[in-house]
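Hey, resending since the last one bounced:
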Amino acid sequence: MKINSSTLLFSFFFLISLFCLSALADNSQASNGGSTILFTTMGSSTFEFDIFTLPTNRRPPSPSDERRLTDGKSINFNGHLATPSPALISLLPNSSGITPQDSSLLHLIYVTERDGAPTLHYDVVHSNNKKANVQVPLLTDQQSGMNVNTMKDTPVLTNDHLVYVSTHENSGKPMASWAAVYSTEIRTKSTQRLTPPGIADFSPAVSPSGNWTAVASYGEKGWSIVSKELSTDIYVFLTRDGTQRVKVVELGGWPRWTDESTLYFHRKSDDGWISVYRAVLPKTGPVSTKTVTVQRVTPSGINAFTPATSPNNNDFIAVATRRPGSEIRHVELFDLKKNEFVELTRLVSPKSHHFNPFLSPDSSRVGYHSCRGDAATGRKNPRNLLQRLRTTSDDLSLFRFDGAFPSLSPEGDRFAFVTFTGVFVVNQDGSGLRQILPQVGFGTVWDPVRHGIVYTSSDPSLNFTTPGLVATHKINILAVNVDARNPSVAVKKLTTGGQNNAFPWPSPDGKRIVFRSDRSGTKNLYIMDAEKGEAGGLFRLTNGNWNDTIATWSPDNNWIVFASNREHIGTLLMDLYVVHPDGTGLRKVAQNLTGGVSMHPMFSPDSKRIVFTTTYAGISAEPIGNPKFNVASSEIFTVNLDGTDFMRLTHNSQEDGPPLWFPKIKATGDVAWPKRFGASCAFEDFKSQNTTAKMNKRSLMCPSQ
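The structure tokens again:
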């Protein structure tokens, strides 16, 4: 059976993550002690989002009408144009001379990842673009201690308070989101949680008076890995303290107010189209799903979602759309009087995606974030090979890597990694980039003894750069000599039997390799000779009618850790297990991971801890606000070998992983590519209703399963 390469390209990283899934320090020597975890955020390096705005009264708009509001350097998204209050202005330096009465200025509050994690910033933008923005980081006191990498999202300013989502508090429950809504008084920095304990809330919106907040939430039922898309409900509560919480809409998300009793939101309609709806709350009497009137606003035939409103504007709303026959997400207005769409961004930048619109308080401007690439936006900063994130320990450094499955050579001088165009090696400073395999590989790891040998698993049919080539799920373990002068003898195939041999990992002495194979009909773990391969004999490490996968060897040679669905046969659910290399001592690592998807485990250099990806913390934002919103999210965690000291390292609304743990690398800050590597904005949006079923059916054949 076969699938075409475009289908596999779409599903590759998603299924890997579920199933398998500049400043440079002195380079003369590595840092003494400590260790480094490398990981990938799926698609993050290609996003390069900035926030733009268009006037709403220019119909049709032209490219010259559009303004970029953010710096063109960072990843900037999810904006909010605020009415400036004295409290907000007090955050600006005295030298700015800005007053709330200056109507020529735009006051933008937004999410930025300039520090490696989603934080909030406040910019004052001059209308003539002749002066630089005044920029102020927000909530800096919350990015400390155990919260250094926590995610902040969807900010809203109401009076003297900032309302937003944060993931800095553990939900206390496995497979439950940490996202909750908070309110911080700007002057005093006093913060209170508005979301009840044990509940997750997303996408807050505050009514024009500031009295009420609406959120999308899974409520008491919580999120699960099998939750359907767009399955949140809408709740309303008092902004001052979170009390009087009540569900007002079943099956709705992304609520936005126009007045104290009217909300717009999106949901998937019975006819299959995502549409915007209006909910009218009763002005007197009890408020519940039974007393709220719900009306469909946008018609079938066009997916319309993530609505934006402005106070007391009953003339139009802004929405993101996916029109039939188009794979591009655009922002449009919807005329509430004429019941018709008014196109905007397609007329300005037709081939770029545009996300999560928002309206200025006076309705004169619509904002959104978009990825245009370096040529269109004038971005001059290079993409980073390594982006450093802050951690709670001086002994542990954490880097986001621009490529999948990054691994560090034993000498500490080179990385190997994977992209859609093949397997590559590169020096730690970003120089010396070379392709060592012209097709996608599943995992990379260096031989700990034999210099320059990289193990991966692949097949020539996974070369997506060859037009018309189809990919099978026949995968073999390969040893690649990255320094071989003759490319024809650089690659050695180590497996011959079975259809799906993947994810090799050598023993610390370099003599053996553990890998997974489906040669028995189900995926189990095997061990073979590192040089002779399968020809030197096989030892079957695990045996059962379940899937065991992604095994790695502890540096002290005592354990092999792997992911398995042996307690959830036939499902996506995966737990972590350890076993001795002789097959004895099998046990589960941590009971509190049961019921989720935990994958990609790897030991720390001292063999005492394990880093891995997991859905333990659920999702951190409404998925439709991101590209490919139907992709489940996982984060990076660590745990002791005995299952204690469970620690979250990353907070992100995108997919993080796979992580790899090495002795400390030389970099102490971001490391930029000398030349841009890979395309900007190279990501897809979600598939339409007519193609999703086909894609999901075909993706079941991905070699990563």
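The longest strand covers residues 105-112.

Sorry for the duplicate.
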